[in-house]
Amino acid sequence: MDQTNEPVVRSPQQQRSKQRADQILAAARAIILEKGCANLTISEIAEVAGITPGSMYQYYRNKAAIVLALGQYYVEQFQLRLAQIFTEPVSNREQLSMLFLQVLEQHYQLFRDDPVVRDIWAGAATDKDMQNLEQQDNVRHLQFFCSAAAPFFPPSAAPELHRTLNLLLHFGIAGSRLALDQDEVEGRQTLNAAKKMLGEVWIQFCRNYTD
Questions:
Q1: Three-state DSSP class for 51?
Q2: What pLDDT score was predicted for residue 86?
Q3: Does the record's keyword annotation contain Transport (predicted)?
Q4: pLDDT, tens digit (0-9, with 9 covering 90-100), for 28-48
């Protein structure tokens, strides 16, 4: 009998392992929020999580693995936000432009609202695994944006569309990070300026392919 369509039920052991891993990540988040990522230690994570330091290694091999898991969690959270923005079908280039800017806004708000995610990604420049995670995330976003935009341009525009969206993606991330380094009032003005600049570049690109 084919069982492939039946729901997967976790065993009690699997459920306990997932709960324990979640406990560890929650403890790490709490410590980062209070003391910063640089002051994270295995012993304190274990104490806050209510487990022994030795048992930590059944789930995460070291502190860097815990930080990486938190980074992956935030990547998944942003993917959910991205999916929500593009819930409805896109009907024209103007709507697409507005949705792209909403993505930038969501990126900014996710980081602005949660000091933990800012602290985690601040260390990405010195951690190879975090760099790889960020690079893979950017590649996924670029592929998604290109797929969303492709129906509104001729096939011959594909290379330039990819190039332009890649630049806009990286300019947007850079603008968001600059805004996050500022206080909330100045950061909002910086982000709005970035949105305006990116929007103008997109409009100019679209004009190159006006029927």
A1: coil
A2: 94
A3: no
A4: 999 999 999 988 999 999 999
